[in-house]
Write the structure tokens for this entry.
Amino acid sequence: MLVAWIKAIDKAVIPRELRLWLRSKQALFLKRSSALIGPKGRLPEVLPRPTRRVARQALSLLNAFTARVRLSIGTQPVSYLWGSDRGLAICRYYVDQFLQEFSSDISGHCLEFQTDEYTTRFGGSAVTKLDILHIDDSNPSATIVADLSKPNDIPSNCFDCIICTHVLHHVFELDKAVHELYRILKSGGILLVAVPQVGMCDPGIGRSRGLLDLWRFSEKSLYLLLANVFGQENTMVRGYGNSLTAAGQIRGLAAHEFTKGELDFHDWRLSVEVCARGIKRV
């Protein structure tokens, strides 16, 4: 029955009364099944194996069903935090996927922006030195304070790898910033970039950190921006996401509310996230 509902929701607009009824049944199901679910959503090992298997399948279907319903309810998103208050944000799922694929690039002397969110996780023991860059001195974790769109004291040919996630869409003078990223990379160094194509603008960033949410990127625009500096043959760009996950990103859903097959189908015309890899060849 649940599978039939999911397929029907894909093909039809649900009347408001039916949506409300389905939501009430979902809430009842979750309440009754909560006793079976252990810490962090795991099912207790004391349950018989067939029971655990059926329960996991039911919860997986329920997540997919919930996502479909929430995509069609109301004019406001279910989260104004990109879904990060509900689980792993969809955009971050794609950043993880990109960095996992190119994790072998993350080695030697690395630079990341604002926090060490990715370098240690994906580089591990291959990272010999790590610097954190922040635009001002408000970040106690920062080892370098600089604005890459302005003159700075960062030495040239310094880093083996730079991880630049969700940074460039805050920079007005993009060409200057990309030239600086190229300058501070060593010869053979690698820049890993992730930027949004679809997503909510953050009205609080400008007030709290002096940053403005300025740009969104397509595969083509990010490619042209980087290839102009790194060279066409040294620039690779890839889009992640599709119409369903892009809608989920806008609505504030989290990655776990979609199946792996849905998340891993990529349509460049409707990407959630655009990622790039640039190599400095001199």
